[in-house]
Design brief:
Blueprint lengths: L5 E8 L9 E2 L1 H12 L3 H10 L2 E5 L5 E3 L3 H9 L4 E9 L5 H10 L26 E2 L1 H11 L11 H10 L4 H6 L1 H12 L18
Parallel strand pairs: 2-6, 3-5
Antiparallel strand pairs: 1-5, 3-4
Helix pairs in contact: 1-3, 5-6, 5-8
Amino acid sequence: MANTREPLLQPIPILSLRPTQMTVGMREVKEKRKRWRERDKKKQAKALGKHMIPVVLGPDKCYYVVDHHHLARALHDEGVEDILVTVIADLTMVDRDAFWGVLDNKRWVYPYDAKGDRHHFKDVPKTVADLKDDPFRSLAGELRRAGGYAKDTTPFSEFLWADFLRRRLSRKGVEADFEKAIEKALALAKSKDAIYLPGWCGPATDD
């Protein structure tokens, strides 16, 4: 049963969910909040039933979020207190000391900050409310939607793109003029420098 998706029909408090990454793109969070507010109560309830948060059950019986951090943060910021989750793995049998290493081995944790620097697992925020903003994660998400690269199943693929962009564009520039940053990001995404990244769909030749 260790890797079976098991929906929990009992709502879980959003603030009890443990993140497995350090940052989110707050621009994306704001966009999700906007779309949430545009729904009426009935559609909001339906959306909550449909968008379950994938989690891993840890040895401390806590639920560790392995995807949809942006959605969880957006719902929290909109005052939603509880959410449905689906357990993709039960790791309650793993020693506490080994737990984060197992998550890392399975690529279920991304302990990098908004500068792209790796941290100790203990530095990963304890709640979604404590996730910090990484403007390059927002840029990477918007770049994919603009056709800069294809959606890919590689874990944390948007963060890999964010780190690529972070090394080539300034944070100040991204925050000052997001549209101009997207134009630059689109050009970078088509370059051979990005060929190693998941979902790369740049030109096949230089002709």
